[in-house]
Amino acid sequence: MFKLYKLWTLAIREDAFLEGGRVTAAAVLPPIFITTHEELREAVEDFRSSPRLAIDTESNGFYAWRERVCLVQISTTERDYIVDPLAVKDLSPLRGVMAEPSIEKVFHAGEYDVMCLKRDYGFEFVNLFDTMIAGRLLGFKELGLAKLIEAHFSVKLSKKFQKADWGLRPLSAEQVRYAQMDTHYLLRLSESLEAKLARAGRLEEAREAFRDLSETGPQSRGFDPEGWWDIRGRSAAPDAALPILRALYLFREREAERRDRASFRIMPDHLLLRIAVAAPRTKEDLAKVPGFSEYLRQRYSGTILDIVHNARHAPAPARPQREPAERMSGRERKLLGDLKLWRKTRAEAEGLDPAAVLSGSVLREMASRAARGESDCLSALSPAKRRRYGAELERLLKSASSR
User: How much is the pTM?
Assistant: First the structure.
């Protein structure tokens, strides 16, 4: 069973040590590392017999143009698994597990994980728990997973590989251990937070938020060809630089796609802007642009000079018209101000972040409905939020409407 398990055990177990009288995360037995379809099918049998699973993913969006899930970490109460999607191309055996209502799937800040798993594998999710959402509803100030683990279990997790390129192989034993720790303590953490939510009377609110999380749509990689307008510092650039900046921006995206590299790793925004403003005519001019490295000089000098030459005399592009935002009436703005003040006061009384009381979008919808004189201004509230805050909000809106 799982031939690689013993190999990873030998590689990692020797690193166990004591710190301050306690065994650190390095002493945890290593995960079962899955690289074949047979191993995945065997693991799925274990997953199906588990009432709760902790799940996390590692992706390579910081490095690749075509971002993809590069690891899927899954922990049961007994053992930790890491699935390598670069080796196991077909993760369809996991589809039924993710959609199984009887199995609770525990994430931390799981929105991006859910989006990426839906994008890459078409998974659907039912019965989720998110420890970050739970922590926010409990009024925790520190919501990072490492902080929560340290506070609950006195274990300090490494952050060394937060920006690692998880698409590279082979992975080091240290990387595998780092990935494992993202789910190893997650089930116990969720148990603790769930009990606290129940005592605080906020478990139903949390479950509503978890259902919303499960309905998050798949993540998509879109490219806005007009995105160069939003480059920081662009507004100070002369009009003559704008056609050059646009041409460089489009070139960078084509090159990023061709090389499958994150766009900013081809050239960062600030360098595109500097080149556009400098409008170099020669390689010597281009070499004087701050940040234009020897590597870039050797690889792109000729192409960039051609781009600058061709765009130099092009007319300044016109900014595309955007759909105008629906303007709020004066009455609507006044009602929204009243609601925000109420939320701020309520959040302070409950020790919560204001967004954990009610989101800004919910406040705006209530203000809009009240301004139109609708009979039910609270329809945007979830059932649990309505039970908790409905009476107060009705009084507030009634009082505001009479003024």
Answer: 0.89
